[in-house]
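Worked problem 6 (solution included).
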Amino acid sequence: MLACVGLAAALKPAAAQGRVALRDLYDETGEAPSALARRLDGKRVALEGLVAPVPSGAAGWLALGETALVPCQLCGGAHDWPTGVVSVRGELPHIADPYSRVTIEGVLVLDPAAREGTGLPERLVLRDAGLASA
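Solution. The predicted structure is:
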């Protein structure tokens, strides 16, 4: 019986480290990962924010930010987006209102190669993400 309980615990996904504010994942300049982000690299976290499609339109990707993420009206790029934006990759359901506030859980990744194809410069990535609440 105890072996079954141990096996069930091993198969259960790791719990999120708790809800983290997006702004706390970047340093004071908004350009680099904060000390907190470096400590959470590779760990499951919950992030709350507003979702938007990534500029590249790549399937399976969303952007999550503290404020509405509206692409540049001239070029469609994300260069005018505020700091505190994370690229999100995962099995996410269709969100009818792309600018709705949601909580998403996933594994925080600092490796720049993880965001290739998003069209988002210098952003952290939340991979293996799922919708925690909408």
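Discussion: The helical segments are 2-11, 35-40.
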